[in-house]
Amino acid sequence: MTQEELKMNVEKALDEIRPFLQSDGGDISLLSIEDNRLVKVRLEGTCISCTVNQMTLKSGVEMTIKKYAPQIEEVINVN
Fold first, then answer.
1. 3-77 carries CATH number 3.30.300.130
2. Helix, strand, or coil here: 31?
3. pLDDT 10s per residue in the chain (79 long)?
């Protein structure tokens, strides 16, 4: 998979999860993909202060990204 294909797949995954985040007043942005294994995102809106945002990040965002791009090992939030 090329870097551009990987980015497109990660964006597809974020597009899938984004409506759930937006329904609670939040959002998410892709910042970077490093070494084809680490995705850096920024949680926005109410997601920033949400007490379960790490669970959302791992159980929702990371799982969805891995569905589209299995080579991704980790997703982290960068403020």
1. yes
2. strand
3. 899 999 999 999 999 999 999 998 999 999 999 999 999 999 999 988 888 888 888 889 999 999 999 999 999 999 8
